[in-house]
Amino acid sequence: MTILDYGLLVFLLVTLAIGLKNGFAKMISTTVCVIVALAASVVVTIELLRLINDTEVFAGLQGLATSWFKKPIMTTEVASQEQLVDVLSTAGVLSVLKGLAGPIFKVMTRFGLNTLGKFFGFGIALVVVAFVLWLAIYLIFKYIMLAIKKLLTKVAKVPVLKSIDKIAGAILSVGLGYIIVF
Fold first, then answer.
1. How far, in Å, CA of 74 to CA of 87, rounded?
2. Model confidence over 77-126: pLDDT tens digits?
3. With a threshold of 0.85, does the pTM exceed it?
4. What are the φ/ψ torsions at residue 45 (nearest 5 degrees)?
5. Per-residue H/E/C for 98-122
6. How far apart are alpha carbons 132 and 146 in whole angstroms?
7. Model confidence over 151-162: pLDDT tens digits?
8. Where are the beta strands (DSSP E) in the chain?
């Protein structure tokens, strides 16, 4: 065995000792709770956005954001991708978007948007609603996960479960150490 192998073995033994000492309940740290809350909130937000896009509240927010775009270039109606390329070609700074005319027109067609102002208004409304919704759902999931963590910590103090908690903590710790090393 080389020095590197001994170093890795020592690292894994240290992670084993830490896991045995802390136990599984403590190893499920706030970071894990936050990661689970982040992932769950993203999934739920995406699903809820599909439902919210058709509401009057979203339409009102979209109308408000669309009203910010009053220049003629933003209010010109676009019926085809070619027209969109023509509009974007004369749009000054926005002309860099003409290479994306295909995807932009697909979005415009899918959501019934016939001007660039409506397209940008829709985008702004979507970002605002998605962020607020995600933040609310994230906080709900985060506090649920922290409550589960607290419950696990209390359950782990029961004498019979304490040894199982220590063994599970050691397994989790060595597994995380193995992932880090390899």
1. 9
2. 999 989 888 888 887 777 788 888 899 999 999 989 999 999 999 999 99
3. no
4. -60, -45
5. HHHHHHHHHHHHHCCCCCHHHHHHH
6. 21
7. 877 877 788 788
8. none
Residue 80's H or E segment, with its range, is none
70 three-state secondary structure: coil
Q: Are 84 and 105 in contact (CB under 8 A)?
A: yes
Judged by DSSP in three states, 165 sits in: helix
Cα 148 to Cα 127: distance, rounded to the nearest angstrom: 31
- Do the beta carbons of residue 62 and residue 122 sit within 8 Å? yes
Q: Phi and psi dihedrals of 146, rounded to 5?
A: -65, -35
**Percent helix, strand and coil across the chain, each to the nearest 5:** 85, 0, 15
Residue 115: φ, ψ to 5°: -135, 160
DSSP string, 27-49: HS-HHHHHHHHHHHHHHHHHHHH
CA 181 to chain centre: 27
Q: CA dist 141 to 114, 131, 145, 161, Å? A: 38, 15, 6, 26
In whole angstroms, what is the distance from residue 142 CA to residue 71 CA? 43
Q: Which two three-digit tokens encode residue 134?
A: 């995600």
* Residue 181: φ, ψ to 5°: -70, -45
